[in-house]
Write a structure and sequence with these properties.
22% helix, alpha+beta, 5 strands, two-stranded antiparallel ribbon, globular
């Protein structure tokens, strides 16, 4: 069982259904975490600035107009 490091809510994460590097969010406090290891599942808080920057790059890369 994995608990949110911020609010201790039980996170329903099955290690067979996630990959390292994937980002998951806590439904209770809304904090985003990156999965560092899958077995056992280890989470680290996502750097919000970097995460938003990565999303913007993905959008820009797909825009060829």
């Amino acid at each position: 069982m994995v608990h949110c490091p911020e609010c201790e809510t039980n996170l329903d994460i099955d290690e067979d259904e996630v990959d390292e590097g994937e980002v998951v969010s806590c439904p209770e406090c809304g904090t985003d975490f990156e999965i560092v290891t899958v077995s056992p599942i280890e989470l680290k808080p996502v750097d919000e600035a970097k995460y938003e920057e990565d999303e913007e790059e993905e959008v820009e890369d797909g825009d060829f107009s």
